[in-house]
Specification:
The complex is a heterodimer. Chain A is mainly α. Chain A has three domains: 1-264, no CATH class; 268-532, no CATH class; 730-921, no CATH class. In chain A, the strands form two sheets. Chain A has a two-stranded antiparallel ribbon with strand order 1-2. Chain A has a two-stranded antiparallel sheet with strand order 3-4. In chain A, strand 3 and strand 4 form a beta hairpin. The radius of gyration of chain A is 42 Å and the shape is elongated. Residues 924-935 of chain A have low confidence and may be disordered. Chain B is mostly helical. Chain B has a single domain (2-115), classed as Helix Hairpins (Orthogonal Bundle), CATH 1.10.287. Chain B contains four helices and no strands. In chain B, helix 1 runs antiparallel to helix 2 (25-45). The longest helix of chain B is centred in the C-terminal third of the chain and has 32 residues, at 66-97. Chain B is elongated, with a radius of gyration of 20 Å. The model of chain B is unreliable at 106-116 (pLDDT under 50). The chains are: A mainly alpha, B mainly alpha. At the A-B interface, helix 26, helix 27, helix 28, helix 29 and helix 30 of A face helix 1, helix 2, helix 3 and helix 4 of B.
Chain lengths: 935, 116
Amino acid sequence: MALFWVPIITTIGSLLSSFTTKLSRNETAAIALTAPLIALAICLYHAPAVYSGQTLYDHIQWLDIVGIHISFRFDGLSLLFSLLILGIGCLVIFYARYYLSEKDSLPKLYAYLLLFMTAMLGIVMSNNMLQLWFFWELTSISSFLLISYWSDKAEARKGALMALIITGAGGLALLAGLLILGNIVGSYQIDQVLASGELIKQSQWYEVSLVLILLGAFTKSAQFPFHFWLPHAMAAPTPVSAYLHSATMVKAGIFLMARFYPVLAGTDIWFIIVSLTGLATLLLGAYVALFKHDLKGLLAYSTISHLGLITLLLGLDTELATVAAIFHIINHATFKASLFMATGIIDHETGTRDMRKLNGMWKYMPFTATLAMVSAAAMAGVPLLNGFLSKEMFFAETLHSQLLGSMSWLIPVLATLAGALSVAYSARFIHDVFFNGDPIDLPKQPHEAPRYMRVPIEILVAICLLVGMFPNLVVDGLLDVASSAVLTTKTPVFEIALWHGFNLPLLMSALAVVGGLTIYALRKHLFQFQASLPTLEGRSIFEKSFESILLWCQMRIEQFENGSLQRYIIILIAVFLFFASAPLFDMQKLVGESQLRPIDMFNAVGSALLIAGAVATVIWHRQRMVSLIMISIVGLMVSVAFTRFSAPDLALTQLSVEVVTIVLLMLALFFLPQKTPKESTSIRVLRDVLIATGCGVVVGSICYALITRPLDSISQFFIANAKTGGGGTNVVNVILVDFRGFDTLGEITVLGIAALGIYKLLNNLPLFVPSTDGEGRKWAKEKYPILLATISQTLLPLALLVSAFIFIRGHNLPGGGFIAGLVTATAIILQYIAHGSNWVGTRLVLNYRKTIAGGVMIATICGLGSLLFEKPFLTSWFDYFDIPFVGKTELASAMIFDLGVYITVVGATMMILASLGQQTASDDPKSESKSIGAK
Amino acid sequence: MELLYSVCVGVLVSCGVFLILRARSFPIVLGLTMLSYAVNLFLFSSGRLTINKAAILSSNEQYADPLPQALVLTAIVIGFAMTAFSIILAIRARADLGNDYVNQQTQVNNKIGAKK
């Protein structure tokens, strides 16, 4: 069966488990166990091939360009880890069924556990580095979910978050390292990377890549100084701790180092970083473990210490050290998992894990006690147990180290010291919990655990004993293939034996045992000494720096984002000012080389009116009606300017838009306060004036610099082709409906959307209609003056005629759909003003929403029509016809498009104004205070 | 003449920006309108200032640049849509919130709190 089925099966298991909420606990556990058992069977099925020295591959080509493939490999190292992950995983699933109480959700735990199992299997079986990294991150996430399983506990949430941040940050470093590695080799396939050891070590990027990858490994494997997250992850349920924090996840970092050992190791920098980190972690973990009163805390630091030991072994420059490292991975996983499970039982049956309360448990739970004592002895390295063998190898290898030059003798001495500490905390585990008087003040009456809860521990302890007594029989082969996968050479000849004769490692072991027992005997003095030391906790440093970063970000955000929109605008404008004015200072001369025109009378008067109108708008901006009238002068002058400077189309458009805008704003002012109270402080006004002046100066200067320089335009094309290609002499209109017709289609769509938005905004509007004007005067009784009513009615057909004229001639002379539409709208608005919306409403039955839609549709269909003739979208067509009475006339498809524009503009403009106007007519004027009562 | 034109654009920008920085909705809408005048004039002038050379094809050799004109024409219409939308938004805001401050959250609460 293909290898990639292994993670797929566990994923399916994870999904299935999350649906088992309705089933009994036994059924739930049975379903959860199925997937890993099948996966285990697949692994065992492949084991003989691996034992014979093969490496199995399974490859699906995927994203060639970026080098990501679904690719699996199965060698000795993968086999070893898969067996650990699946084997211990099954035991943990079985154990958790008894550990979790009725109120905790078993399916949730199993779903997460199996997800985590998938991730771990993915790591150890990956043959693609990016795929490996994906699964690596998945372990971080799934372990976050597992640690925070009891999410109502603050401890669990904090611990989970800390683990996620530390391992997540390490994961990012790892990604960077892997990317560099892939870049050096030119492939992300691990088999190719492993074959390129020399290339990698000679690369100038080797050191960077090594450090980044090691950062990933050290954070995951809780190496000093990143070790502090592991004890806090102990807030997880104990089965999770047993699985993640002893047997599997923390070993992922070790796995990573072992996986890349052939290409990354062998240099001085590797040996120095890895061995010193390992040594520091080994000592620190062992020392702190001794002082933990919490059983799980003791085991957590002990785990850190043992991970340090394995790391140190990988950093020692001998092949046998690597074999010892692999061996210790197996041994540590078995004895530590069983110790965690035993701790879980103790916690479960007594209600506490505090060693100051737990005493004399031997009387209450002799079976569990026996099992735990055997495991703890294995942890201490007592002969006949597996821990002894690997520790013996470890001691032997430290003797060969040349790492510290002439001070290399320190390493075996420190190793022995760590061994002694390990014996001491193991002794404490055994003696404090199971003997040492009577229990103090326990929450529960302790008793023996359920029969089946002990089964997983019994299996693990049996393995400890079997490996310890018959190592060659049980573990030799597996160790051999795993080590050869790490070393990529033939495994060196090694002999694991209980008895090597009297030699230095044996002496070290003996010293460690004696020293450890001595330390334990003197523990009271040590505890007192330790208590007098100032505590320096990694967690508090982490939390403080975490909080200060958050606080810093918060402050930065609040500085900018204080809720004042003016402030945002000012920042925006200031940034604009800075960047827009900078190039101006680089220019030699503002004025360009074009010939300038003299100022004539016409322009002078026009400019004076425009400036006066603009300034007056600002000066009287508190009296809103006055400022509105003033701004209409500006608009008028703008349209005059367009007329003056050869833009008749613009002038017409500006003029008609101006009329509509001012009518709209007046209507709007009816619903708004008539005056703006004086609120801004003088300093604020001064600031605003300065900024506004600055903007004006900069924009004006840019404008001046621009228009005094010669023009280099693409417009010659349009002028040359307007008649021949577009069939019109008004180039502006031809550009609008033909050359840039797609733009225009977009514009009318936007116009339609804006009108619909306004319609929606006015829907169910709780308006109040003031009964008086701003000065307190009543509105005139005569709502619709008769003169205006009469004249406007007369004007309507004339206006429509003009509008039709403007529309038709638009293609050749100033005019077109936009302008004609606005003129029509203005004429209809005049009817509204003169007669009121009820009067118009009964006579002009026009659904403006449909009008808009119709207009856009006509324009679009006209554009699509060209597709029928196999021309691109919006290609126009024109020809000349001889029409009776009219004469030779040009007809162009662009006119249909322009008709769409016309209809849209009429519909949108009318919808905006009529919807608002409707509000005034809907009911009688109310008094302001009454309807505003909600305020 | 170019200088005068640029001065006009500059004045319009200044007045527009000043109005935009006010705290009430109506002056801000006026400011937006003013700014769109300025922007339209500015964009239009990128085709340079020409007199009596409208881009209506005839026997002339020289024409005003029609491209900025076409762009500004649509800009004027879109500018109208924007002005309309913002003023209606202002009405809606006043109707729903009872006042026409643009900074609804902070300023209003402070002001009301100060009054009471």
